[in-house]
Amino acid sequence: MSLKKLLKEKGYHQIKLKYTKTNHLELVAKINDIEGSFILDTGASSTCVGIDAITHFELLSEDSDIKAAGAGATNMLTQISQKNRIEIKGWKKKKVDLVLFDLRHVNEALENHKADKVHGIIGADILKRGKAVIDYKNKALYLK
């Protein structure tokens, strides 16, 4: 039996992924019913949205004590947006908290490699909630 069939029988949703030119896995997700493009990052503890996408997703934000660190950048100030809805290809969760911070360094790196900019990062918080299985060979994410 294939992994896809096994996971579908267990109630998982299949989400197609694509590789960016930087070899990151990218997917489309909706936050509060508004579509955006996201990098899948198993090493990111939280799902994040770029500060420049706050209005795109109509997010309410408040200052946060959390300091973000990521590829090439540390100690970045963050905000938080609480109780959002996220939907990824039919898989839905409510009451999702998002970390908001400046993703310019991420998007500049993508643009330098002629890859498209992203609105944010899907992190381990969502992957854990969805009991994620990543099929790298077939470029698919499964969430339950």
From TrEMBL:
Gene3D superfamilies tied to this protein: Acid Proteases (2.40.70.10)
Name of the protein: Acid protease
Lineage: Bacteria, Pseudomonadati, Bacteroidota, Flavobacteriia, Flavobacteriales
